[in-house]
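Changelog note: in this version the structure field was regenerated for every chain. One regenerated record is shown below for reference.
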Amino acid sequence: MGDRTFLAGMFTFLSGSYLRRPQLAQAGISVRKPNLLKKLLAFREEGKMMVFNKQQEVKHLRLLVIGDVVGRSGRRAVKENVSSLKKEFKLNFVIANGENAAGGKGITEETARELFSSGVDVLTMGNHVWHKKEAYEYLDRETKIIRPANFPPGVPGLGAAVYDLPGEIKIGVINIEGRIFQQAIDCPFRKADALILKMREKTRIIIVDFHAEATSEKVAMGWYLAGRVSAVVGTHTHVQTADERILPGGTAYITDLGMTGPMDSVIGVNKDIAIQKFLTQIPQYFEVASGPFQFNGVIIDIDESTGEAVTIERIQNYE
């Protein structure tokens, strides 16, 4: 086996793709060398990768991005899952979409603080960001909450920000909202262009939460930003998609992260009320469902030096 093939096999193994004996053999790793195998596993668990011909380490930033947190059930799911996931996966940063965190629509200072105390580093938002008027002043002073950047100028809050991590690492977070089947706001594509151009002066690690209804608009955004950001993750529909992948240029992508909230519901709403609305077409007062929760999101590994995503893995936990 040539050196190039061997190194390619090592790279793939360390990134977590090869786990079974036949696949290890295919990757050029002998399972008859347990000491070597233990060392390789240790490097992978530490989120590091050895480059054998350069005698150096490539360090990875590992982050968790959580799908729309809905109501009390969603906040409880965050509290009961994030701490253990941080320990298990050695997470460096946690982002959650919190636009439904307060009673199913909007955010309040109290609910935001609850999510921060549960291990969330940054909250992104969406079309329900303005539902709780008491949050407007809070949005202006809380830098760890990002609302869609393509709202017109003059609205409360930040649309993008760069955060400092240990080791002089900086991570940029951008929140933008789609326009298909949603309100007519500024172009999300052109707004993303402007924000990325400015943000890349500070960091190559950039995460985009695209809060949009139409899958076509989300997929288009993924391709549009491929190679320019570390990840494009979709939110809003509350249904996790199974299309996670690494796009050309090292951009992790998924059409929708899913929902973190009541499992036995209609995308978070009490199922009986939602069904009645469909049957009668009479407007109903939607209530957030209760009962056991589901926890949806993705874990992404990013090369600290290049900002390129290496892996993306879906998370689905149920109570």
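Spot check on this record: Residues 1-34, 47-55 have pLDDT under 50 and may be disordered. The two ends are 47 Å apart (CA to CA).
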